[in-house]
Amino acid sequence: MSRNTGMTDRADPWRLPIAVAQIPDTGLHRDLEADQAARVAMAEAAGLREILSASASFDVTPERGGRFRVAGHVRARIGQTCVVTLDPIENEIDEPIDLTFAPPEQIPQLADLIDDAAESEDEIPDPPEPIENGMIDLGRLATDVLFLAIDPYPRKMDAVFEPVVVAADPEDHPFAALKALQVDVKPPGGKKPGKH
To answer: What InterPro entries is this protein classified in (predicted)?
Structure first.
C-alpha cells in the first residue's frame, strides 16, 4: 500500500520519529496511542466528525543495504456522517501495514525494479518509502494509513437511497416542443385545401 497522500507539508499531529541508527540488529517493537489533541487535529485534517481512538503497533526490522521493514497494524474508531441519512455513524479501521523504508539515494533504483516487476505476472510490491533525515516517523506513517483507510462515502448498514419519484408530465415528451410550434397553416387565398 503506497502511502503517498500528498500531505507531506502538513503539520503532523501524531509523531513518533525513530532514528534508524539506533535500531538494534534484532529490530524493535513500538505501540502508539494517539492522545486527544492528536485525534482532534487528525479529524480536522481528514474532514471527520471525530476520531474516538487511534492506535498502531509496528515491528521495525533491519534489512540489507540500509533498508528497514515496517510491519504491523493501524486501528481506529472514527465518527462520520452517513451520506444517505445524514445520521452520525461510527466506523472501525483495522489496516495491516508492510512497507520497506530505504535511504533516499536507493529509491530510484528500487522503483525501477518495481516497474520491471509490474511487467511480469507476479504480485507487484509497493515502492519503498524514503528514510528522511535518518528517521522513520511511525506516527506519520500511522496517520497516513488511517487517512487512506477512511471510507469517503460512509453509510449506515440499513440505509437505502430512495430516489425522488416525480410523476411524468404528459407535456414532457420528445415531440412536445414541436407541438408547441405547430400553427394552423392556410393556403394562399384563404381557402382550405380540397374545397372548391
So the answer is: YceD (IPR003772)
Residue 116 to residues 2, 44, 113, 121, 185, Cα–Cα distance (Å)? 17, 39, 5, 11, 74
Taking alpha carbons only, the member of 89, 87, 14 closest to residue 50 is 89
Over the stretch 59-94, which tens digit does the pLDDT of each residue have? Answer: 999 999 999 999 999 999 999 998 888 889 999 999
Question: Residue 60: what residue type?
Answer: V
Please list, in sequence order, all residues whose beta carbon lies within 8 angstroms of the beta carbon of residue 150, skipping any fewer than 6 positions away: 46, 48, 78, 80, 93
Collapsing DSSP to helix, strand or coil, 43 comes out as helix
